[in-house]
Amino acid sequence: MDRETLFDCTGLVVVITGGGTGLGLCMARSLAINGATVYILGRRLSKLEEAVGSCSSIQPPGEVIPLECDVTSKPSLEAAASKIGEKTGFVNLVIANAGVPGPSNRALLPRPADDPRGPLAIQEVQQHLWETSIDDFTEVFKINVTGALYTAVAFLDLLDKGNVRRNVKQSSQVIITSSIGGFHRSWTQASLAYTTSKAAVNHLVKSLASFLVQWKIRVNGLAPGLFTSEMMQAVFGKDRDLTAEGALPVEMQPLRRAGRDEEMAGTILYLASQAGAYCSALYDTKSLEWATLPPHPSAARRFLKVRLGHMCICNRDSRVSGCSVSL
Ligand SMILES: NC(=O)c1ccc[n+]([C@@H]2O[C@H](COP(=O)([O-])OP(=O)(O)OC[C@H]3O[C@@H](n4cnc5c(N)ncnc54)[C@H](OP(=O)(O)O)[C@@H]3O)[C@@H](O)[C@H]2O)c1
């Protein structure tokens, strides 16, 4: 039960889409530092190679390997699975993490009382929403939802082979990166395409977990709060350190800052290693509580029901601050 054994990832073969940047790269690094062989997939080979360069201090058996792949293309996913299969013969963990933010709806945030334009008129709302093309809206679903599903499907045979091989104690697993945006209705999320795609991801986790239970391929969801990445830099700019204490207002993030690398690393090491081997159809949410639960812990307990064995978070119409959890 010592921490080295409990969180050890030696021997794990892991595939991470969107592994060349942001959260995916953070996960890849922490898994490889702890012994895993990690294939990082993305469309831009240059970014993937840059990412591998940033992992040069990682010691064997840990390794990070780049592989070009577009999660919206079946031939591309098939080629990636085939290349990895030829090298390893099996996979233990697939992290469907690739994602895009989608068209912003920040223009629809409520205006301050002293805004000379006055309150938003319904015609402005209509015009703003109409301006986004159906293709642009749908593209977000194509990558965030359909891409996550097809990523999982492309690796099912190799995940099954991981279970047969039993090179590690924990059974094979798919983790899909969702977002707190998929749980609450706050305008602070400000992209309808993104938040609705992540809500769809949440249901995908549950559905896939049910489909695959017979083959002991576990499916879990990871719903991060705000972490700095290319995606977030597009919203907040590159110059601010969002991880500094007090960098963000409390109504945006309960801890008043963005998440740090070690906090994501700890989460993924838990889920990937023996420590998280009993997680199935679980959501690990980061900084969700403020948006969804009453602040008092005793009240929160009434809303949060955690069943061990097949862990999930259940709701009881927990409508708080205009938000709800519905799993
Ligand atoms: N950062 C946050 O605060 C936050 C919060 C909640 C959830 N998330 C989720 O975390 C995940 C990672 O996002 P991030 O914040 O780390 O942003 P990021 O740095 O922009 O990462 C997104 C990654 O997805 C890859 N990608 C996009 N489309 C792809 C496609 N069609 N095929 C393959 N790869 C593709 C990108 O690489 P290429 O462009 O090279 O393909 C990139 O590496 C996303 O699912 C995001 O929704 C992030």
Automatic annotation (TrEMBL):
Keywords, comma-separated and alphabetical: NADP, Oxidoreductase
Coiled-coil blocks: none
Family to which the UniProt record says this protein belongs: Belongs to the short-chain dehydrogenases/reductases (SDR) family.
Source domain of life: Eukaryota
Membrane-spanning intervals of the chain: none
Gene3D superfamilies: NAD(P)-binding Rossmann-like Domain
InterPro entries for this protein: NAD(P)-bd_dom_sf (IPR036291), SDR_fam (IPR002347), Sec_Metab_Biosynth_SDR (IPR052178)
UniProt-recorded Gene Ontology molecular function terms: oxidoreductase activity
Record's protein name: NAD(P)-binding protein
